[in-house]
């Protein structure tokens, strides 16, 4: 039987001290596995090259510092055999004993709750390493016998996985049975016990079942909610349509009412405009009838003149002028020739009358009854003035002097 010892770890990078000159890749796999255990015992069957070996390792992972204080290091002590020792628990006791008696204090030391390397390479303490190997071989020779070893079978290499067992519940028989099925066994006080594991598994199963039940309840609630929503939508859909139809009818009715109001407003506006035109027409007729508007500000609509209007506006002024001329000639005929002052006075009066008549003749409007009356009054005043002149004899030749009448013969403008 071949037995080799490996001292390995990361004092400053991974370092391996071994009794066998050949390289073993299995030892290099202990570094960088991200383990969290403070102390772990591992038994596994592995193939290195063409050879098959059983490895018994004691590993320190948690809170291990390199020689320079860098965290993330580990320390390992491994026994490799080409057979399987059935006294697995004895093998771990040997590793634990050698670690506490020869490794601790010479290669590593405790630093509070942490473990720190004292060296940067195991070659620096090679004598200590050899002493560790010798002590392991001596204790191993005293603790096991030939009958405690079995040959490595092909089934042990099937890689079933790693079984984690609490240190207090570990037994070599159970571990050996699992190794025979192709698995590896890890033992640590950090692993939960079987009772705790069973309790934990029970609680995990309960949580899983509760999660499943809760998910099922959530799905049922969602289904019920969707069903209720559909029922409510169906129930109120007809009511909503009815309300929408009523609202539409009311809106259409209001629009129709407003349309009728618009028609009525337009009709009333037209009636108001017609009334206003009628009122304006009446106002103009009233002003024309009573003469309260000056002739030069009256705007008479263009209409075809009647026969009476033609006589009153065009013929009557000429008749009046003719009468005045005849009267003037008569006065001149009857008056003495030397009454020059009286004749001049009468001429002035006639000139004023002609100007008034010309002014009246130029106004293109309906003649006012008051203006015609004033013309007649002016003519009567003139005739009366001529007839009632005070004739006084100024000398014995019977010359007459006609005194002007005190009455104002000027024709006044129509009242405004």
**How much strand content do the residues show?**
15-25%
Task: Give the class from helix and strand content and strand pairing.
Answer: alpha+beta
- The helix/strand series, from N terminus to C terminus, equals EEHEEEEEHEEHEEHEHHHHEE
**How many strands, what sense, and barrel or not for the largest sheet?**
7 strands, mixed
Q: Termini, distance in Å? A: 157 Å
The average pLDDT is 77
- Please give the order of strands in the largest beta sheet: 2-1-6-4-3-12-11
Q: Runs with pLDDT <50, length 5+?
A: 290-300, 363-372, 389-416
- The helix content, as a percent range, equals 40-55%
Helix count equals 8
What is the strand tally?
Answer: 14
Shape: rod-shaped
Rg (CA only)? 74 Å
A few lines on this structure:
The protein has 416 residues and is an alpha+beta fold. The chain has helices spanning 25-28, 88-103, 126-143, 172-180, 194-290, 307-334, 340-362, 369-387; strands at 3-9, 15-18, 39-48, 51-60, 64-65, 75-81, 84-85, 108-111, 114-117, 149-150, 161-166, 183-188, 391-393, 400-402.
Structure description:
The chain has eight helices and 14 strands. A hairpin with a 2-residue loop joins strand 8 (108-111) and strand 9. The chain starts with a strand and ends in a 14-residue tail after the last strand. Mean pLDDT is 77; it is low at 290-300, 363-372 and 389-416. It is of the alpha+beta class. It has helices at residues 25-28, 88-103, 126-143, 172-180, 194-290, 307-334, 340-362, 369-387, and strands spanning 3-9, 15-18, 39-48, 51-60, 64-65, 75-81, 84-85, 108-111, 114-117, 149-150, 161-166, 183-188, 391-393, 400-402. It is 51% helix and 17% strand. The strands form four sheets. Strands 2-1-6-4-3-12-11 form a seven-stranded mixed sheet. The chain is rod-shaped, with a radius of gyration of 74 Å.
């Amino acid at each position: 039987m071949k037995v080799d010892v490996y001292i390995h770890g990361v004092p400053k990078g991974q370092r391996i001290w071994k009794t066998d000159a050949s390289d073993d890749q299995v030892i290099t796999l202990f570094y960088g596995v991200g383990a969290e255990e403070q102390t772990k015992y591992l038994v596994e069957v592995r193939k290195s090259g063409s050879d098959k070996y059983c490895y018994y390792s004691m590993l320190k992972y948690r809170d291990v510092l390199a020689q320079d204080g860098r965290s993330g290091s580990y320390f390992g002590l491994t026994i490799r055999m080409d057979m399987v020792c059935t006294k697995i628990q004895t093998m771990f006791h040997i590793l634990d004993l050698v670690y506490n008696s020869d490794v601790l204090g010479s290669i590593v030391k405790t630093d509070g709750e942490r473990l720190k390397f004292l060296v940067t390479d195991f070659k620096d303490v090679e004598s200590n390493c050899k002493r560790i190997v010798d002590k392991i071989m001596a204790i191993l020779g005293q603790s096991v016998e030939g009958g405690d070893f079995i040959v490595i079978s092909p089934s042990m290499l099937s890689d079933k996985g790693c079984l984690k067992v609490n240190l207090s519940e570990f037994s070599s028989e159970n571990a050996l049975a699992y190794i025979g099925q192709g698995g590896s066994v890890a033992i640590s006080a950090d692993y939960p016990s079987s009772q705790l594991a069973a309790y934990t598994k029970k609680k995990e199963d309960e949580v899983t079942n509760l999660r499943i039940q809760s998910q099922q309840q959530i799905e049922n609630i969602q289904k019920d909610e969707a069903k209720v929503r559909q029922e409510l939508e169906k129930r109120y859909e007809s009511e909503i349509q009815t309300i929408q139809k009523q609202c539409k009818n009311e809106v259409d009715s209001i629009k129709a009412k407003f349309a009728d109001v618009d028609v009525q407003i337009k009709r009333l506006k037209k009636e108001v405009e017609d009334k206003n035109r009628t009122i304006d027409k009446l106002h103009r007729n009233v002003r024309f009838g009573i003469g309260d508007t000056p002739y030069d500000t009256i705007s008479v609509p263009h209409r075809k003149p009647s026969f009476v209007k033609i006589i009153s506006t065009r013929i009557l002024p000429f008749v009046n002028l003719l009468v005045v001329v005849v009267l003037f000639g008569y006065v001149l005929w009857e008056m003495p020739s030397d009454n020059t002052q009286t004749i001049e006075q009468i001429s002035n009066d006639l000139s004023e009358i002609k100007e008034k008549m010309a002014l009246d003749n130029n106004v293109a409007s309906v003649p006012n009854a008051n203006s015609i009356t004033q013309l007649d009054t002016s003519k009567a005043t003139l005739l009366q003035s001529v007839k009632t002149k005070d004739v006084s004899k100024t000398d014995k030749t019977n010359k007459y002097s006609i005194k002007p009448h005190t009455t104002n013969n000027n024709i006044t403008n129509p009242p405004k």
